[in-house]
Amino acid sequence: MPLARALQWENDMEFHDVYPLFSQKAAQVSTIKWLTRMMNEDDQKYWIYGTVVGVETTKPFWYLACFVCGKGVEVVDGRRICGHCGLETNSDIYKYDLDVVVADGTGVINLTLSDGASTRLIGEDTDHVIAYQGSRVKTLPPFIEDEILGKRALFEVVFRSEATAVRRFNVSRLSEDEEVLEQYELKYLPKEKGEVEAGGLKRRIVCCTCLRSWCLYGFLC
């Protein structure tokens, strides 16, 4: 699985303030390094900035949802039973269950995206994708993987710990607003090592694969 090459941050700040498109208030953005090391109570929310560097393609990327509560439906003896509210349903509502790997230069993190966050990142809802390949095919189509790899966004992460002490990070929503991302990058991200001054003009030496000064995939051209 491709991992982003680590960047050296110019300062040791754990939080930065940014204004997501859908929020009137400044949100604190933490680094992945800090988030993965901290221990906290359940249902705490944090924002992280990062790039999608990996996608889980071996597990089903969608689930059948209850029309009442939206939770997953299980098929028991040919009957569709909601595992949350216990109702029998004939629901044909499909929702995303997408796992991605995100990097920010300080570390990497495994995230499970909500249906809404997945739809925003992919740009297509589950109905369109299932209509394309059929409901019997549950593995992620290659075109979706190609679409989201390399995308950068602000992710709102919900921290939850299970009884087994397995740590889970779920994403309830995200922002891909270019203006917000560019402001954050200019203010807080370090200058790229490949950026040099040449005759008063800034020139960047970029990777031939990902066109970045620091290679997204760790390649050396």
From TrEMBL:
Source domain of life: Eukaryota
Record-annotated Replication factor A C-terminal domain positions: 49-138
SUPFAM superfamilies linked: Nucleic acid-binding proteins (SSF50249)
Protein name stated in the entry: Replication factor A C-terminal domain-containing protein
Organism placement in taxonomy: Eukaryota, Viridiplantae, Streptophyta, Embryophyta, Tracheophyta
